[in-house]
Each structure stands twice: as structure tokens, then as C-alpha cells.
Predict the 3D structure of the following.
Amino acid sequence: MMTSTEALRIIETLASGTDPDTQQPLHAGSIYQQPDVIRALFIAVDAMRLVQERPPSARARTLPEKTGKPWSDVEDKQLCSAFTAGTSIVDLAQIHQRTAGGIEARLVKHGKIAPQERKAYQPRSSQAV
């Protein structure tokens, strides 16, 4: 699996007009030699450097312990049973050490709520500006 450091090195090498495998200059007709592509590669390099240099975000430090981790069959059954019994999304999130959005996504997956019933997470495009 490639690390972000390795990917950055490859993109930097391409942006400078060099083949990352052979270290030879890219030929003039290469797609990587087109001005817009070169600009895009340098923007990607800058963005990757910012991400690498940024300290862990406050949000990442405050996420529940099980955020992003796989759900077990037992945990799924407990979630569905508790929801059916009337336990709130907020309480379920605390009990399962996950975000409210994660709880809602799991409930959608199991057919306990419809996708349009989700409240904790709304894509930016649907929020009022």
C-alpha cells in the first residue's frame, strides 16, 4: 500500500517534468507537460503538504472511540433492538461510542429509518446558505 509521502514524491516528480520510475525527463508531447496539468500537479503537491503539516484536528481528537470501526453482528442487533425500543439517536451514539451520523447510517442500512429521515448528517449541498 502506498503512503501519502510516497504519493507526494511521485506527484512532485511528475510536476517537475520527470518520470518517477526512470528519473528521465518526460517527452514534450506527454500529457504531464501540458500547462494545465502541470499547474494541477503543483496545486495537488501544495494541498498534500498542507495536510501532512497540519496537526491533528480538534474534531479528530474528540470523535467517539469506535468511529469508523467495523460493526459486529451483536452490536448491530443491539442497535436495532434499542432503536425499536425507543432509545434516541444521541443515546445510541453514546452507548455504541459512535457518532450520531454513524448510528443513523447503520439504521438506514438495516431499514430502521429511511435515508431522508437522517438528521445528524446532511450533505453540504442540501444545507441552506
Remarks:
- Helices lie at 4-15, 35-53, 58-62, 73-84, 89-96, 100-109.
- Confidence is low (pLDDT under 50) at residues 121-129.
- The chain has two domains: 4-54, 63-120.
- The chain is about 50% helix and 0% strand.
